[in-house]
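Long-time lurker, first post. I've been practising inverse folding by hand and with some scripts of my own, and I keep getting stuck on stretches where the structure tokens seem ambiguous. Below is the full token string for one chain I'm working on. Before anyone asks, I'm not after the true native sequence, just a reasonable design that respects the backbone. If someone could post their per-position residues I'd love to compare against what I wrote down in my notebook.
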């Protein structure tokens, strides 16, 4: 059976969240041939639209004074990207060859293989979840992964934060501006967070600690109504009546398929220099896959713009005027995004 003919594009954007779609808007508007791998609807780590698809109301994205839902914001970005000629494909990169341009990417869809003159990685990161029943269902219904995004909606409520690192204490301190009470739930008897954050937390009267405690169950069918807690030393159970739970147990960047090809930091995030350039010339990265700090839709969109401009300039350089020649027979490295 003859091998399928790869599709040729100027720019392959891997990821369909705000970073990837913004990159697609800019590169397509520059008259480049652009394909976007949006992800797969059945995947929890790289679904089309990214984490915004799990966000109900977004009130801090510029240009929407009345707010906008996460899915609607993604729908608007998709429409704008296709308006300028971007081709959106539901699929993910399952293996790549990034030895030299043009690059080869195998896609988990009928597309098969793609040859790209440049690649923009915008695969994002995924929030580490507790793995409890109804947890996914209650995201956006009392369960949140972003205090900056959702804290305002919990004014004068009793809420909880799970975690013990800097992120958990930063979330709790931020939420104390709005909430009536904030309970930090931590499975150990000491915090990993920096001492300065611990001192600030101790001085905040709204914040209390539940040490050596884990969450066994979430209550509420359509809206979070409380938590069943278990003391890991004694096994004792009790109920914490809260209407908000913020998960702050870390994020994992979606970089598995790129780990043998691009320079990553100790936590698995893609290292970028001089804007959005990666360790491989012609491959750029933007959004949460290279940003472990801010993780906001607007910063992702901004870095998507940067990656698009970097890719456009790189392609415009006469030294990189690449014809679509068959790539060297380098074995593709399997993985998943």
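-- Answer (accepted) --
I ran through it position by position. Result:
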């Amino acid at each position: 059976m003859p091998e399928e003919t790869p599709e040729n594009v100027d720019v392959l954007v891997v990821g369909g969240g705000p970073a990837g779609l913004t990159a697609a808007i800019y590169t397509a508007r520059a008259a480049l041939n652009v394909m976007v791998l949006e992800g797969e609807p059945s995947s929890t780590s790289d679904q089309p639209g990214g984490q915004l698809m799990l966000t109900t109301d977004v009130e801090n994205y510029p240009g929407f004074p009345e707010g906008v839902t996460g899915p609607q914001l993604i729908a608007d970005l998709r429409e704008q990207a296709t308006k300028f000629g971007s081709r959106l494909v539901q699929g993910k990169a399952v293996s790549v060859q990034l030895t030299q341009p043009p690059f080869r990417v195998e896609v988990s869809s009928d597309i098969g293989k793609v040859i790209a003159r440049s690649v923009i990685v915008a695969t994002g990161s995924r929030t580490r979840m507790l793995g409890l029943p109804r947890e996914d269902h209650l995201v956006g219904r009392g369960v949140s992964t972003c205090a900056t995004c959702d804290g305002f909606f919990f004014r004068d409520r009793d809420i909880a934060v799970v975690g013990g690192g800097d992120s958990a204490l930063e979330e709790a301190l931020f939420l104390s501006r709005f909430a009536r009470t904030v309970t930090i739930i931590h499975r150990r008897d000491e915090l990993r967070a920096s001492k300065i954050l611990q001192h600030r937390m101790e001085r905040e009267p709204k914040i209390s600690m539940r040490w050596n405690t884990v969450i066994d169950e979430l209550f509420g069918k359509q809206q979070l109504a409380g938590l069943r807690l278990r003391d890991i030393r004694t096994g004792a159970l009790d109920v914490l009546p809260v209407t908000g739970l913020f998960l702050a147990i870390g994020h994992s960047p979606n970089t598995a398929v790129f780990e043998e090809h691009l320079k990553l930091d100790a936590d698995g995030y893609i290292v970028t220099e001089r804007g959005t350039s990666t360790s491989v010339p012609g491959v750029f990265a933007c959004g949460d896959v290279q940003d472990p700090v801010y993780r906001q839709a607007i910063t992702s969109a901004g870095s998507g713009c940067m990656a698009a401009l970097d890719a456009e300039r790189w392609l415009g350089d006469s030294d990189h005027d690449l014809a679509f020649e068959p790539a060297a027979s380098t074995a593709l490295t399997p993985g998943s995004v």
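A couple of notes from the structure itself: The chain has a mean pLDDT of 90. The first strand starts at residue 7 and ends at 14. Happy to go over any region you disagree with.
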